[in-house]
Amino acid sequence: MTVVDRPVTTRPELPEARGEVSRGVRDRLLGGPGRLPREADVARASPYGEDLHLALHLCYEQHYQGFARVPDTLEWDPDLLRVRALAEHRFESALRHDCRELLGVEEALAELLMEPVGGTGVSRFLIDHGELWQLREYAALRSVHQLREADPHLWVVPRLRGRAKAAMVAIEYDEYGCGRAERMHARLWADLMVDLGLDPSYGHYVDAAGAELLAASNVMSLFGLHRRLRGALVGHFAVLETTSPPAAARLAEAMRRTGAGPAAERYFDEHVEADAVHEQLVRREVVAGLLDDEPELAPDVAFGIAATRLVEERLGERLTGAWSRGDSALRSPAAPGP
Questions:
Q1: Which residues, in sequence order, are CB contacts of 86 under 8 Å at separation 6+?
Q2: 190: Cα within 13 Å, side-chain hemisphere
Q3: pLDDT (tens digit, 9 = 90+) per residue, 287-299?
Q4: Residue 272 CA, distance from chain mean position
Q5: Taking Cα atoms as reference points, which of 233, 302, 244, 299 lies closest to residue 113?
Q6: What sign does the dihedral 91-96-99-104 (CA atoms) show?
């Protein structure tokens, strides 16, 4: 097995289409003659399905690194933005329907802190039963968003004020390595991938990622790119920072048990300590600061928490279900780089 020894920074190639909606978006990005999806096409797509979420991923990526052979001018193409808005409406409507029974913000945050005895989930599966090939699959799938780890959350910074903004920037400063490129968390994830014999190139494993992973990634961009959803983005951020320390501790131990390598262990060891501090800042300053300034956003924060838990639970069920059967959770093998 040949291992890529450093992150590759070239833009990724466009993933293959998974239906008529993603095919239409892909063709437009490549300058092809095909028509863009219409409202009826998007309405027929499953709100949690492969086709819709790949189409959203293709649209959202224009606001991040972009794709090879796709001109930067298409970032603000009005026809692509129209399709994106239709797909976002389909996804958000499903989330709001499935998360319609919301807890209050304090109750929702308190639930995040509870670690049930005999609980389930990906990190528990991997610490108890995980094999090296399953850890490789986990790293490959999560790389779709971990290689731009903090980027979606930065969209909210200009939309916050006072305590919430100051604390958000303090946390994000840590995420970006406190000014040191080699300590950026996205870079640490790339190093983890190298230890596991994976290709750390940005976007390399999108074709291997199923709808559940793409939905968990897309929800960050959905919340981040819309000012009206700033409360939901803060709720999303609270879930990640609150649930990270115990999950990271389990994943660090799983990496050690399977001999994944020092960089693989380091990523999760660092998150056990850092995110324990972040969790306090998120609750006391980001969430509380936002709601002191804009108390009317409390239902949006609660929605962000519920929606994030929903997409993460769907992803967890997909991964642990496949692994429990001895099957791969990927759409295609997680091959190493050239």
A1: 37, 39, 42, 43
A2: 22
A3: 999 999 999 999 9
A4: 19
A5: 244
A6: positive
The burial class, CB within 10 Å (0-12 / 13-18 / 19+), for 36 is: middle
Closest of 288, 266, 242, 124 to residue 189, by C-alpha: 266
C-beta separation of 146 from 193 below 8 A:
no
How far is it, in rounded angstroms, from Cα 80 to Cα 21? 11
Which alpha helices (DSSP H) does the chain contain, by range?
20-29, 39-44, 50-61, 78-98, 105-113, 122-129, 132-146, 151-154, 162-175, 185-195, 211-224, 230-258, 262-281, 288-293, 298-324
DSSP structure string for 120-167: -SHHHHHHHH--HHHHHHHHHHHHHHHTTTTHHHHTTGGG--HHHHHH
In the block, tokens 């329907």 appear at 97
Token pair listed for 128: 């108890």
CB 212 within 8 A of CB 315: yes
Check residue 30 and give its pLDDT.
Answer: 95
Integer Rg of the chain from CA: 19
Distance CA 240, CA 212 (A): 17
Burial grade of 7 (CB within 10 A; 0-12, 13-18, 19 or more): middle
Q: Which of 300, 299, 307 is nearest to 98 (CA)?
A: 307
DSSP type of residue 69: T
Could you read off the pLDDT of 208-249 as tens digits, one per residue?
Answer: 999 999 999 999 999 999 999 999 999 999 999 988 888 989
In whole angstroms, give the CA distance from residue 274 to residue 8: 27
